[in-house]
Amino acid sequence: MLSPRTSPTRDIVGLDGLWRFALDSRATAEPWRARLDTPLEAPVPASYNDLFTDPEIRDHVGVVWYQREVRVPRGWSGQRVVLRFGSVTHAAQVYVDDRLVTEHTGGYTPFEADLTDVVAPGAEFRLTAGVDNRLTNETLPPGTVTTGPDGRPRQSYLHDFYNYAGIARPVRLCSTPRSHVEDITVVTGRDGSAGVVDYLVEAVGGAEEVRVRAVDEAGATVASSTGTEGSLRIEDVTLWRPGAAYLYDLIVELVCPDGKLLDSYTQPFGVRTVEVRGTDFLINGEPFYFTGFGKHEDTPVRGKGHDDAYLVHDFQLLDWTGANSFRTAHYPYAEEVLDFADRHGVVVIDETAAVGLNLGVQGGLTGVPPTPTFAPENFGGVMGDVHAQHLRELIERDKNHPSVVMWCLANEPASNEEGAREYFEPLVELVRKLDPTRPLTYAAVMFATPQNDRIGDLFDVLSINRYYGWYLFTGDLATAETYLEQDLRGWAERFGKPVMMSEYGADTQPGLHSVWDAPWSEEYQSDLLAMYHRVFDRIPAFVGEHVWNFADFQTSAGIHRVDGNKKGVFTRERKPKSAAFALRRRWQGLDGRKPGTPIAEED
Questions:
Q1: Which residues face 221 on adjacent strands?
Q2: Which of 351, 503, 523, 545 is catalytic?
Q3: Is 138 a catalytic residue?
């Protein structure tokens, strides 16, 4: 699915702004059939939970309704009209006037509706979206809905971030020609100093010819071809590199036999290669060491709503710390985030919303013995098919981003349990078929050890989440260091693959200080990270470190969290804790090299 872009043949009308808003319990049985009778308005894009002071809205479980009027530009006569939602958390039903035009399940990938035969240029229509935030054992992330003593539904879930809901990403009305470019796939390689760009174009309609050309940042055409499938060669190519992004444009045109332009679409791309060789992770044939964070789409008031101001500021803070990468924990981020990473040379590990596939975590928190995670009545039934669809939509959306160097199939699954291999093996096969160019990983939970993990050999990079010194051996960093090194060496020795730390950290209350190893103090967070870094530097197979977390984030209420997760090295408002300065001292100037590696002399 191509991202919406304007071109000589395409236009976009943004539908962001204030929409009428109502809970299903306060709306009519069929609210799409008339103007929504409500005093409330909600901004799009934004999560709705933190906008209002009404606790019934914040804690609502079920469907809410958004509505607005839309006028189709009168100049769109003869054009195809497409409605596109960047994401709706977690399921959507969309109506144009009285007609259901599309449905979608999955809160973090886009979906479209073709309105060409439904609306008329120059005319206005009523757009209504029903948004359902419920999580079950057939959704990703999974959850459980129960009925409380008061008869109201209650939502529980296994992931440690708040279940924000709403229309969290931009909504657009787009025009394309009836004969149009439907999809583009770009795969890049190198041949000496030249770049090789393989492309595949899917076109719809009666075009006689497909013209393709690559244009550099100066606007010069550097290669061209014809046909829906082919290869371009760019001599003296400028590579896309971490910290030094360079993007070309692939301009695809559909042309009539008389030379008339039917459609034009521009796909940015970067020429770079990614490879795992032995225990090295290579970008453009050079060893790359990940420094950065697990993040969240989480800001005050807007929740998971996309915000360009926070986008720019967060990337500035990444650069300030010396971070070169991040993981989209624990779901695909907005397309605008990846576009920005492409333009600024930030490396991305792209993750699905498969978090919570581990009933052992629930047992560890409650003391109740867990049921098997992959039993048919839990996640061993239809969840595999749901997971596969999430992977298809993720790869379809993000396959052309040079910043994306690895797919992460899941966060902290029960990879130590019976049934894990049967669950993950077909998913790994699917992803390798959909995209054979990028390595694969998953983030291993604490319960999965080098001795009992059942799936590590299926993947290319071992990403390990560990909290020695926090959840285990709290306040005892000396013992934690011994166990951490033993653990990581075990993964490296058993599998012989690159190992990186995908999560490590400690909750920290900003402003709390201590001369002792006092958990929750800013000094303890810095000391814990330093202990981990000493271990990383002693393991040859180690290829990266992603601190958990970039910034504090909101979680569900409970005794385990006080106003959210405080493992950020920045506060939720993006103020630095002491650990941010410690990371800056470690990461600044590394340029993708492992700490302690000498800078190679230039020829």
A1: 215
A2: 503
A3: no
